[in-house]
Amino acid sequence: MASSFSSIFVLIFMLINFCYLSVQETHSPKPFKPPLNQFDSISFPLTTSLVTKNTPNSKNTFLSSLFSSPNKPTPSHATPTYNFKASFKYSMALIVSIPIGTPPQPQQMVLDTGSQLSWIQCKKQPKRTLPKSPFNPSLSSTFSVLPCTHPMCKPRIPDFSLPTTCDQQRLCHYSYFYADGTFAEGNLVREKFELSNSQSTPPLILGCAEESSEADGILGMNLGRLSFVSQVKVHRFSYCVPIRQHKSKTLPTGTFYLGKNPNSNTFQYIKLLTLPRSHQMPNMDPLAYTVGLVGIKIGGKRLNISRKVFLPDAGGSGQTIIDSGTQYTFLVEEAYNKVREEVVRLVGRKLKKGYVFGGALDMCFDENNLEQIGRMIGDMVFEFEKGVEILVNNDRLIDDMGEGVHCFGMGRSQSLGVASNIIGNFHQQNLWVEFDVANRRVGFGKADCGRSG
């Protein structure tokens, strides 16, 4: 990882005391890609043109807690009800194509429940190369930029988790510098999203990135004031992550709903946790979807992990979040050690000794007989309050990293520089996940996500 938590803390201290108005945020672990020399065959793992970093990374939750607080969208009779269904491609992230502007221009965006600000690739004179092109503001009649006089661009009004600055054109400028070295910067703008031929959003605030090390944008879906969810006042949304086949040349297709999901009568729900502000500093992200994980089972055996490990302490450490923008699952040290101890007990002789993949995954294998290893480990279960469970079948525990290397899809949160438990999209395969924002709960439902609708 490019920076440690301590260095991020120093940066934030500098931001506050010297009014340095750009922000470093470790992003929702960008879809993970190993070193190029190990994975040349799929250098663009999310879509045919998305380049990702060589190591896992995650959002710096500390920044969000400093500058904002959860914003629960409240139902309003004057607010239109959005019902939108779309498909997305899944490799290492959930890539949805959403038409933006007037007339609409399709934009590829990472569906990210761990980010607030949405942003798109924005070029003034883009090369119209299909199937992917950056957004061209000059072609949209509903596009507008935020001037420096806009409240969002006044740093002394602390209702904004993304510090901004005024550029030479007197426009509101933002900068995201991620801890893994990726970045996105440009101007804050307003633009509408075209959800269907008959339904579009009002102009929303989002980032128009003219400089970025990523090829796709971000659809920010957390509880922050500037997230897509909050600005549109989405009451609920859901997605179904399909199984990723290692040897398939085509990316599987999943389903994304804004609004009511016809399958929701089969879902089991758990409440989102709400904790006092005193528990949000310095490590907790109050804008994340925080849930009450109570235990983990492997092969039917409940691991000896204290429940308090999965709940935020007074400093916010130990928060458990559901994050579609993180590929793998990461656990705090005490919980991870228990998982690793059990995996070593079951298949220790098959592990690559002293090997750590991408600086984060240290339970890896050389052999290709994944079915046998999976059967030896058994199914894994994440246990939540009220008996709700996420079952991860043994054939979905280990991921193919290329060149004959396979790794158990779980790592230490410490390797990311965070103090949270993060359940990533790899362990959400073949599962409906619904974020019922209006009722502050998350629902889970078993599904064949390659066929769900």
Characterize the structure shown:
The protein is mainly β and 453 residues long. 11% of the residues lie in helices and 28% in strands. It is built from 5 helices and 27 strands. It has helices spanning 5-18, 61-67, 228-232, 333-347, 370-377; strands at residues 23-24, 84-90, 94-100, 105-112, 119-121, 144-145, 165-166, 172-177, 183-191, 204-212, 217-220, 236-240, 253-258, 268-271, 293-298, 301-302, 320-322, 329-331, 364-365, 380-384, 389-392, 398-402, 405-408, 410-412, 421-423, 431-436, 441-446. The chain has a 9-stranded mixed beta sheet with strand order 11-4-3-2-13-12-26-27-14, with no helix packed on it. β2 (84-90) and β3 form a beta hairpin. The relative contact order is 0.18. Mean pLDDT is 79; it is low at 1-29, 31-77, 125-131 and 156-160.
